[in-house]
Specification:
Structural class: mainly alpha
Shape: elongated
Radius of gyration: 22 Å
Distance between the termini: 37 Å
Number of strands: 0
Helix content: over 70%
Order of helices and strands: HHHHHHHH
């Protein structure tokens, strides 16, 4: 290995190693998986260090780490997700309940649940306040439309309409996650 290349790798490991391992550990279930992924990242880094220019080493390393984490989870969840997700038409609402409410407590289901909730709340934050509130009350807090109408003084049809718009937005946003998790 040329000395310049070796120095570049050592500098990257020194500068980013600890932070990168922490980043990976927060996204996987155990330290062994985190260390395996980190090793894969360093291997890929050492393979491309001279073959292509890397403008932002930090961004490149974290992107590779994220991709390796996703690859690892996709490999582990392929069979599990096929069993949990029912066949559905394109127009039906995505049935994430079967994924989220399964009794199986595996690292894969924990990761998928975490990813789902993260994406759901991110998508909810994009909604207008009134649509978000109606969706949360109805779907997460089990508040009926009648109770919501009493709380807010709004017409039940208005509340149903707000939830419909929220569902359409969430369906669109979560479809990408659903496709990533089930498309192999």
């Amino acid at each position: 290995m040329p000395e310049e290349r070796e120095n570049s790798i050592i500098q990257a490991i020194t500068a980013y190693g600890k932070g990168l391992l922490g980043f990976i550990r927060r996204r996987v279930k155990n330290d062994a998986d985190a260390e395996d992924i980190l090793q894969d990242v360093w291997y890929q880094f050492s393979s491309v260090i001279n073959s292509e220019p890397i403008e932002q080493t930090s961004a490149w390393l974290y992107r590779v780490a994220r991709n390796k984490i996703l690859d690892k989870h996709k490999k582990r969840t392929e069979t599990l997700l096929d069993d949990m997700v029912p066949e559905s038409d394109e127009d039906e609402f995505l049935d994430f309940k079967s994924i989220l409410m399964t009794e199986a407590a595996t690292p894969e289901t924990a990761y998928v649940r975490g990813l789902f909730w993260e994406q759901l709340f991110s998508a909810l934050d994009e909604l207008p306040k009134q649509q978000r509130q109606v969706f949360i009350w109805h779907e997460l807090d089990d508040v009926t439309f009648g109770e919501m109408a009493e709380r807010t003084g709004e017409n039940v049809q208005t509340l149903v309409s707000r939830k419909r718009y929220a569902v359409l937005h969430l369906r669109k946003r979560l479809k990408q996650l659903y496709d990533e998790l089930t498309d192999y």
